[in-house]
Amino acid sequence: MTNLSELKNIGPVSAIKLNDLGIHTFLDLLFYLPFRYLDFSKTLNISDYIFNEPATYSGTIISFNNIFTKSPKNIQRATIKDNTGTLNLIWFNQPYLSKNIVVGEILNVAGSVTIFQNKITIVTPQIGNKTGRIIPLYHQSATLNSAWIEKTISLNLQTLLQNYSEVLPTNILQKYNLFDIKKALIQIHQPDSQSQLLLSQNRLNLHQSLSLLAQSELQKQNILNKKPAYILTKIPKTNFLPYKLSISQQKAWSEIQKDLLSNNPTHRLLSGDVGSGKTIIALLATHLTSANKHISLIVAPTQILANQHYTFFKKILPKIPIFLLNNKNKLPKLPNNAIIISTHAAFYQDSKFFKKIALLIIDEQHKFGVLQRNFLNKLKNPPHTVSLTATPIPRTLALSVYGHLDISYLSHLPHWQPVKTFIVPEPKISDCYKWLKNQIKTTAEQAFIVCPFIEDSESLSTVKSATAEFTKLKPLFPKLKLELIHGKIPISDRQKIFDDFKVNKINVLVTTPIIEVGIDFPNATVIIIQSANRFGLASLHQLRGRVGRGVSPGYCYLFTDNPNSPRLKYLTTHYEGQQLAEFDLKLRGPGELFSTLQHGHFYFDEKSIILAKSIIQDLSKAKYNLQKLIINHSSLTSIN
């Protein structure tokens, strides 16, 4: 049994919806981990409530009313009583509760007590099996909510665990007092207590760290025994550049140029903040390779970004043959100085294709999975490889995680100015839209409005969707041209929308986070991020970097129902990706780390990295096969 649809609670339609979340296999589902938890395990008397702290309460139902209004919304009110006091409960649009809540019976409810209409109240409390325990919360889609995902994993957990086994020897588990991986996974999905959950989260974090360090160690061993596919010797002039390189660009280019001219394969990571000028360094590397009569390949994470690179390279290097490779076209016979720009499609070419490549540049390297990396490792004479990333890496951990790579850092360009960032609470949203309308009218500049979802989610009524927001905003901006874009729109139509936006035929682009990586529109100066608390710091920083890339200053507005969020507040006063990465490292508890693991950004935990290094040293001495430690399922290694 390997198909998802053969599991309990999953039919063919549900399996497709799981695929949209990046869940294709049993292991993907097993490692689809909660991003946080609601702890309702504490049971309190009503009079012992603590404001805004989750807990479970039990009492006799003394009243229940279904209130229907003229609007589509209806309200359910109830009151429970124990021997210490009374507690008010309120739900919205859940009239079916009248079948489950009967006056005179005992009701267990879970939630956080607050003041609502001057009364001590729990708004939308949980009832039934949601009370008295720790509830895992999973990233959900518009069609699959967290409760369904929790139920489905719970029903199938033992079956899923049959397909996974502990990778560490018993003596290592005993020496370091570690949870067995299966026990840890059970506690992650069905926690018994906070202490058990914390131990399990630490074990899963170690699991990730071991995989990263094992990859690094194996790649280091692999590199030492290889020669590059081609030797490059000629240094061409760079007087064709449209501007003078910054000091950090000059340093990075000097380091990469030295690598390319050596007799060893280049393995370098170019880490640069949003807008630091990584692409021009990549262009210089391909230009040097072409001058040596050899072929370069640039691999981008999306077709849109590949198209953008293609246009830019053709403009700056008009005399060099440049080709765009995608799933639909085939390459002609290549001149020996060609530059190829592609997506993951390049990795599906035959083996002869890669034997022609002297330089491989991978844009946003964290978005490429283990299979692609293993493919490169198997090449007897690999191409020089330069990886680009805008995902900030805490310097304290970079050498541990990327020990097999040389690392160059880019700082901001000299003319860079930070994007002014503001938190906008719900009462101020209409004022912000009025400002946006006037800003576009007076400056002819453009804006993005980013929503987490494509469609509305019944289970997350407060989280904005792009389609609903687009419909709502059109009448608010009658004289402006608005357009909607998201990942389900065909790639050719998306490209047309981006092209129209580029030439200012569109004033406001309502979008999902598909614009996060690399998209460059110099005339876009405003970005509004709906439900900003739903995004991680790295994603917010990337999205913010889509505006203010031209001569005019950029503005970022974070719409949220939680204006006191420490993460959002920090983002409004800090603009360096490195600072944000270090802050994220300090701020996150283990309960939040899995959110970033499942969205393509590794969580760097210093303690687990140090522990993993010690374990790998022990395993290496014992001649243990480190390949067993590498995680090969998509949930923890690539974008979902």
Task: Explain this structure.
The structure is a single chain. With 640 residues, this protein is an alpha/beta fold. It folds into 4 domains: 54 residues, no CATH class; 89 residues, Nucleic acid-binding proteins (OB fold (Dihydrolipoamide Acetyltransferase, E2P)); 274 residues, P-loop containing nucleotide triphosphate hydrolases (Rossmann fold); 155 residues, P-loop containing nucleotide triphosphate hydrolases (Rossmann fold), CATH 3.40.50. The strands form 4 sheets. It has a 7-stranded parallel β-sheet. Strands 16-21-20-17-19-18 form a 6-stranded parallel β-sheet, with helices on both faces. Strands 2-3-4-6-5 form a 5-stranded mixed beta barrel. β13, α11 and β14 form a beta-alpha-beta unit. α3 packs antiparallel against α5 and α7 packs parallel to α8. It is globular, with a radius of gyration of 27 Å. The C terminus is likely disordered.
